[in-house]
Amino acid sequence: MSFKSPADIANSACATATGKCSLRISQMLFLGFLAGAYIGFGGFLYTVVTQDLSQYVGLGLSKLVGGASFTVGLMLVIIAGGELFTGNCLIPIGALAGCVTLKEILKNWVIVYFANLIGSLFLAYLIYRTGLASDAVGSNALKIASGKMSLPFEIAFFSGILCNWLVVLAVWMAMAAEDIISKIFAIFFPIMAFVASGFEHSIANMYFMALGILLKNNEGLVSQAGLSSHSLDALSVGGFLNNIIPVTLGNIIGGVVFVALFYYLAYKDKIKA
Predict the structure, then answer these.
(1) pLDDT tens, 178-202?
(2) Cα–Cα distance for residue pair 6/19, rounded to 1 Å
(3) Which residues cross the membrane (predicted)?
(4) Mean per-residue pLDDT for 193-220?
(5) Which of 126, 168, 252, 270 has the most neighbouring CB atoms within 10 Å?
(6) At CB < 8 A and 24+ separation, what contacts does 51-60 make?
(7) With left for phi above 0 and alpha for psi between -120 and 50, is residue 3 left, alpha or beta?
(8) DSSP state of 81
């Protein structure tokens, strides 16, 4: 076959876990920063594409096209190289197989998550400074951010589970691919599905919500977005945490349980630690 079988992917995932946990702290920081920015690029493209598309093609197709545009973020992470916290929710398969320790995984997660945050915030600031997030694009960015920051804990949590189930499946499938084009297609469909479905991704949300906070003092954009005072109040550090905590917890469960754990249990007899 020109691609790896699921059992072979399980072995590759263990080898990948070993490699990721062996990275120097400086490597985790640099690659994590890049991954946070790459996901932000996908987020900005999504915002531009969906700013007015629904009035021409309908809401459903607008979400589909927006989801397709967002896939560029994970393509950049996997093909160009980056350390993404949500994707790294696959590496516990290495601990289950005895390739790495839980301590090594937690070290990777904490450093990469912090680096993803910095990269996301930095890109949001750059986008803000370009002035490109103005008019319809800026009002769309405000609506996206306020919607995320107003989500109840339970909805954000379960949306986070569903999101990272698909994101880590995209990483899993990309490991099966033996060439660039195959990797692109392996990434494209699961990521398009999670975005079009409206699920919640912690690293993408860091970018979306940071840009929303930066834009909230633009009265013209606020008026154009039609935000209520309650929605505007949600655009704050408190609103950021209100979303990012449950979404992060959900992302961990979605990736670790439904991909890493389940595939380990399915193929543990074929994994060579």
Answers:
(1) 999 999 999 999 999 999 999 999 9
(2) 20
(3) 28-49, 69-97, 109-128, 155-177, 184-208, 244-266
(4) 97
(5) 168
(6) 51/136, 51/137, 51/139, 51/140, 52/136
(7) beta
(8) -
Number of domains in the chain: 1
Residue carrying the six token digits 């992302």 = 251
Amino acid making up residue 158? F
What is the CATH number for 57?
1.20.1080.10
By residue range, what is the domain housing residue 201? 6-268
Alpha carbon 101 to chain centroid, angstroms: 24
Residue 1 counted as domain residue:
no
CA distance 105 to 121: 24
45 within domain boundaries: yes
pTM of the shown model: 0.96
Residue 117 belongs to a domain: yes
DSSP string for residues in 192-226: HHHHHHT---HHHHHHHHHHHHHHTT-HHHHHHHT
pLDDT in the model for residue 229: 85
> How far is 137 from 221, CA to CA, in rounded Å?
9
Q: What are phi and psi of 234, to 5 degrees?
A: -70, -20
